[in-house]
């Protein structure tokens, strides 16, 4: 114990405190050295024998003690005392194999070894902390259990992995903590745990020890059967939800619903509406409400805004009990610059690129992960697996994939760094996405991964082994942009832009597509869905009814953002609940009933989903730009009744409209958006009609229909004659 050593211990700058603190054999005696700020006396107890440890200098106490197992009792000037086990008496927790995988960047279950784990170590209860900070000079755990004093509980390096670890006895579930990191440059920062399972409620920034083990899942039947529900040949209709603004409790300060309240109310509503899946905007902990979760800090922590981790599991399990899947919006493409997050985590650009030309998103003022670093790639891959494994989620929708794939995304010349071949593709991000999909589908092929990808990057939803990115599905942003442009036009001009409704079919089967009407379409001045529609009040609702029916009968899975299902009049506001009062108005209630019936028709009619991703399930029929009419047929598997869809996108009724059909017989009117129950004029075809042996639209048989104004009529073959 040199003066320099004592000074370093007292200042919290000793480079290897485990070498001098705790029990150490000196000669033929065992000495215990401990650092105990504010203590006036320290007693080591072995069995029933107590030994007072003399003060050496400052707050360092040391003395010879007989025996290996001991506790320390600290007495303070105010008369209080505390007895605890000595953290420096415990062996490392991480195994050699874990260290090897961490160092190699291949530990797919990183959350099982990093973070804060409630555990029993060497027969003592406590919490094991581990964090990756390879360039740090010193890392300490600070929290409400040690007065946030970084000198008290410095961590030990776990070999050459860059990981620091310590076991703290008597710390329990619910404890607040951060990592105090002295960086390579000598600067000090307080950081939240990158693998923490819980966080304080923002704007507070501490991580929270959460014991996530031992949840008694009861969804075995769902898990066993869910593979079929994610299949391309199954009906998938997704309700996209921002949990903080779906409903609020204005009888309780305007707070959002809790996970447990959502497990009852949201799940029941989604089941009632007939959606097959709920997709949650990001729930990984995030500091800023206005980011809607798209700037996450705690990637392993379900946000505390709605409850602790087990209650989020309650929500997922309730959905599964109702036979509803849960997808999570996942954000591995960027993270915020908040000082308690991943930015400059150990004083260096650890998770991000050092060069802002590679590592800074100008659109969102966020940082871009360095996917070329194996430990960073492993961090995000293991996070994807974590949500699937620990929370039984049924899939991940990956945000902003286009921004990951291209180095020049939203950048001008000179603002980006080319790849090694001089091109714009981000090879490292591509490899990461492929590895993530291989890992997720390899761990559980019954889930789905979905890419929000807005460019024509090839083979996004094709297997990695055939050169694809490996996603299960891709959002069809082109379909959404084109068809909305068409619907926003006054019907008198639609004849000139007929291609906007038909051209998307040219690429409809190049990927496994989901047709999305997402939150992005009803914010930032874009107006609500009903506001986008032209015409009188009646025409607006008729237009929207026709558009939804067109969407539900087109090839591709479906996604609709909350509030759109009842034509909320206003733009979405994340600070308030949806306008449920409007949902009670007749016209809005009609839209809601239509969406419910469209979901039922979709689920119950194989021709509308079995070949969503296969080209021989679709064929054009009548297509007349001058009248703004569109007709097509959907086919299912052999033996499935075909479906004919006729759309009239003008406010002009078209009686006596002949349309060719693929088979003779009676075609029942399975749905008509002009039905009175939806708010229409109840003009239709008296339940259906028989075919005639008159050729039309390239078919040997045809029938005559009445096409109501601004409507879609869906016909299903009921029987052959």
TrEMBL record:
Under the GO molecular function aspect, what terms does this record hold? 1,4-alpha-glucan branching enzyme activity; cation binding; hydrolase activity, hydrolyzing O-glycosyl compounds
> What positions constitute the catalytic site?
399, 452
Query: What are the EC numbers?
Result: 2.4.1.18
Q: Which GO terms describe its cellular component?
A: cytosol
Q: Which reaction does it catalyse?
A: Transfers a segment of a (1->4)-alpha-D-glucan chain to a primary hydroxy group in a similar glucan chain
**Which InterPro entries does the protein's record reference?**
A-amylase/branching_C, Branching_enzy, GH, GH13_cat_dom, GlgB, GlgB_N, GlgB_N_E_set_prok, Glyco_hydro_13_N
* One GO term of the biological process aspect: glycogen biosynthetic process
Question: What keywords were assigned to this record?
Answer: Carbohydrate metabolism, Glycogen biosynthesis, Glycogen metabolism, Glycosyltransferase, Transferase
Say which enzyme class the record assigns: transferase
Q: Where is the Glycosyl hydrolase family 13 catalytic domain?
A: 240-602
Q: Which domain of life is it from?
A: Bacteria
Task: Give the Pfam families listed for this entry.
Answer: Alpha-amylase, Alpha-amylase_C, CBM_48, GlgB_N
- Quaternary state and interactors: Monomer.
Q: Its family?
A: Belongs to the glycosyl hydrolase 13 family. GlgB subfamily.
Chain's role: Catalyzes the formation of the alpha-1,6-glucosidic linkages in glycogen by scission of a 1,4-alpha-linked oligosaccharide from growing alpha-1,4-glucan chains and the subsequent attachment of the oligosaccharide to the alpha-1,6 position.
PANTHER family per the UniProt record, alphabetical: 1,4-ALPHA-GLUCAN-BRANCHING ENZYME
Q: What is this protein called?
A: 1,4-alpha-glucan branching enzyme GlgB
Q: What is the lineage of its organism?
A: Bacteria, Pseudomonadati, Pseudomonadota, Alphaproteobacteria, Rhodobacterales
């Amino acid at each position: 114990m040199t003066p320099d050593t004592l000074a370093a211990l007292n200042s919290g700058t000793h480079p290897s405190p485990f070498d001098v603190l705790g029990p150490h054999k000196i000669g033929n005696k065992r000495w215990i050295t401990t650092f105990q700020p504010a203590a006036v006396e320290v007693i080591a107890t072995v069995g029933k024998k107590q030994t007072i440890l003399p003060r050496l200098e400052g707050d360092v106490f040391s003395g010879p003690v007989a025996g290996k197992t001991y506790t320390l009792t600290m007495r303070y000037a105010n008369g209080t005392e505390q007895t605890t086990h000595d953290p420096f008496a415990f062996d490392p927790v991480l195994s050699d194999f874990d260290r090897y995988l961490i160092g190699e960047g291949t530990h797919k279950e990183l959350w099982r070894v990093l973070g804060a784990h409630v555990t029993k170590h060497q027969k003592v209860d406590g919490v094991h902390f581990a964090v990756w900070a390879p360039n740090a000079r010193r890392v300490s755990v600070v929290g409400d259990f040690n007065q946030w004093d970084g000198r008290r509980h410095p961590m030990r390096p776990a070999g050459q992995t860059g990981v620091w670890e310590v076991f703290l006895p008597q710390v329990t579930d619910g404890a607040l903590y951060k990592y105090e990191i002295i960086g390579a440059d000598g600067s000090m920062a307080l950081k939240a745990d990158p693998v923490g399972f819980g966080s304080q409620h923002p704007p507070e920034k501490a991580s929270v020890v959460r014991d996530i083990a031992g949840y008694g899942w009861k969804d075995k039947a769902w898990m066993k059967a869910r593979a079929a529900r994610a299949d391309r040949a199954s009906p998938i209709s997704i309700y996209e939800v921002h949990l903080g603004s779906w409903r609020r409790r204005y009888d309780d300060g305007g707070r959002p619903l809790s996970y447990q309240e959502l497990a009852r109310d949201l799940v029941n509503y989604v089941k009632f509406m007939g959606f097959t899946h709920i997709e949650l905007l990001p729930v990984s902990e995030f500091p800023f409400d206005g980011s809607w979760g798209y700037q996450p800090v705690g990637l392993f922590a379900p946000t505390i805004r709605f409850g602790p981790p087990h209650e989020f599991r309650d929500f997922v399990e309730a959905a599964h009990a109702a036979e509803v899947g849960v997808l999570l919006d996942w954000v591995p493409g960027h993270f915020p610059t908040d000082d308690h997050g991943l930015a400059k985590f150990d004083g260096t650009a650890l998770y991000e690129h050092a060069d802002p030309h590679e590592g800074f998103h100008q659109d969102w003022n966020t940082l871009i992960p360095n996917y070329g670093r194996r430990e960073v790639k492993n961090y995000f891959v293991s996070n994807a697996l974590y949500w699937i494994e620990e929370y039984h989620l049924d899939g991940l929708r990956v945000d902003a994939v286009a921004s990951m794939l291209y180095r020049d995304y939203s950048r001008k010349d000179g603002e980006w760094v080319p790849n090694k071949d001089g091109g714009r593709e981000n090879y490292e991000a591509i490899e990461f996405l492929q590895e993530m999909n291989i890992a997720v589908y390899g761990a559980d092929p019954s889930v789905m991964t979905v890419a929000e990808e807005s460019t024509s990057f090839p083979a996004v939803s094709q297997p990695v082994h055939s050169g694809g990115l490996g996603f299960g599905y891709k959002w069809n942003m082109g379909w959404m942009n084109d068809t909305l442009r068409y619907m926003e036009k006054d019907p008198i001009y639609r004849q000139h832009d007929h291609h906007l409704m038909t051209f998307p079919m040219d690429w409809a089967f190049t990927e496994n597509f989901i047709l999305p009407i997402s939150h992005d379409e009803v914010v930032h001045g874009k107006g609500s869905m009903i506001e986008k529609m032209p015409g009188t009040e009646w025409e607006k609702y008729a237009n929207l009814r026709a558009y939804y029916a067109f969407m539900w009968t087109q090839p591709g899975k479906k996604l609709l953002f909350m509030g759109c299902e009842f034509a909320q009049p206003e733009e979405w506001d994340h600070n308030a609940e949806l306008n449920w009062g409007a949902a009670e108005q007749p016209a809005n209630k009609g839209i809601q009933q239509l969406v419910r019936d469209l979901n039922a028709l979709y689920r119950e009619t194989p021709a509308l989903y079995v070949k969503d991703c296969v080209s021989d399930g679709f064929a054009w029929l009548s297509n007349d730009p001058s009248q703004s009419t569109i007709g097509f047929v959907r086919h299912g598997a052999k033996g499935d009744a075909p479906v004919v869809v006729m759309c009239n996108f003008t406010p002009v009724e078209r009686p006596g409209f002949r349309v060719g059909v693929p088979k003779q017989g009676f075609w029942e009117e399975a749905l008509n958006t002009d039905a009175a129950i939806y708010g229409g004029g109840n003009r239709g075809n008296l339940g259906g009609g028989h075919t005639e042996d008159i050729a039309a639209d390239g078919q040997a048989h045809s029938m005559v229909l009445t096409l109501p104004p601004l409507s879609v009529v869906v016909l299903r073959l009921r029987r052959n004659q």
